[in-house]
Amino acid sequence: MPGALSSEDVARAKAMVEDYYEDVVHTVSQLNLSEDLVNGGFSTFKTRDRGRFDMVVPGLARLLEAAGAAWMPLVKALLGDDARLCHAGCITALPDCAGQKWHSDGDHVHDEMQLPAHAVNVFVPLIDSGLRQGATEFVPKTHYDWSADERPVVLEAHAGDAVVFDWRLKHRGLANRGTANRPLLYMTYSKPWFVDKYNFSKDRYQDLPPLVPRTTREGRSERRHAS
Questions:
Q1: Most buried one in 1, 104, 122, 133, CB count within 10 A?
Q2: pTM, whole model, 2 decimals?
Q3: Tens digits of per-residue pLDDT, 170-195?
Q4: Is the pLDDT of residue 86 over 70?
Q5: What is the dihedral angle through the alpha carbons of 141, 145, 148, 153, rounded to the nearest 10 degrees?
Q6: Which of 81, 149, 92, 144 is nearest to 115 (CA)?
Q7: What residues contact 18, with CB distance under 8 A and at least 6 apart?
């Protein structure tokens, strides 16, 4: 879905993600929490392979809701009008991060019958992404058959484009070949009866301590615009 998020909202979301990332990294350093982060992380800021961080950014879900969520008609067409948002976050891939292994975010809900989608992901890159920069690679038809012999696909997506896919689909994040962090917004929607007891379980992670003040957000914004 080209241009699902406006350039203005992309800029706002990117600034929120950058600020939160910097604040958490500073807090981890000040409180000597590096080992905790390496060993999985926290409920709102966790590691996903080397150089990848999965974060729940305060205020980001409200920003996306206010932006209009242009992908919702498609999500509702797939899941029904009562589709609900399970989770919203951002994965930031640092330069020279590790590429991910092939995976799906969830499995089927019936062992013997192929059912329609019960959950979908919406990915929105906050910088242009594709083969040159590294992006997400998908294997078509693997939401039906994990071993489907299909050629992998990397979508060339501009900042603000939305990629919507069945969360049973095999995919992986490629290494970041660029020189800047690569932030990717993601939202998981599902049918109302479905509960993901694994990916978003708070029991698996400890809470992140209160952030240690680093500097004013106004100061950070001024430095960002000056650079």
A1: 122
A2: 0.88
A3: 999 999 988 899 999 999 999 999 88
A4: yes
A5: 30
A6: 144
A7: 181, 183, 224
Query: From the DSSP assignment, how many helices (H) and strands (E) are in the chain?
Result: 5, 10
Alpha-carbon radius of gyration of the chain: 18
Q: Scanning the structure block, which residue is given the tokens 């919507």?
A: 164
Among candidate residues 73, 96, 107, the one with its CA nearest the CA of residue 1:
73
How far is 64 from 62, CA to CA, in rounded Å? 5
Q: At which residue do the structure tokens 């330069």 appear?
A: 95
Residue 111 has pLDDT above 90, yes or no: no
Contact indicator for 43, 202 with CB cutoff of 8 Å? yes
Of the candidates 12, 90, 91, 86, the one whose C-alpha atom is nearest the C-alpha of residue 48 is 91
pLDDT digit string, tens, across residues 119-148:
999 999 999 988 877 899 999 999 888 889
Supply 22's token pair. Answer: 């910097």
